[in-house]
Amino acid sequence: MIKTETRIQLLVTKSAGAADRSGETKAGTLREFKDNAERAFLVGKLRENGWNISKTAEVIGTPRSNLYKKLEQYQISQETDG
Questions:
Q1: From CA 70, how far away is CA 46, in angstroms rounded?
Q2: Average pLDDT, whole number, for the chain?
Q3: Which of 1, 17, 28, 59 has the fewest beta carbons under 10 Å from its own?
Q4: Are 63 and 57 in contact (CB under 8 A)?
């Protein structure tokens, strides 16, 4: 199994788009990149912690209520991302 950090890096790299010959990426906006990276991070940490919201919130250093807001914002669920 791939480590969470490696998985996140792969997802972030994929979301950044491929570089063309000039070295420029065909990525979307910075906001899209950051959102993709944050979503990938959260899903990885939730998987590491068996989808335990309280434990995941503690591990990443955020209030549980904030984590619930992020889950809603990025439409993350164990059924779709488990």
A1: 12
A2: 83
A3: 1
A4: yes
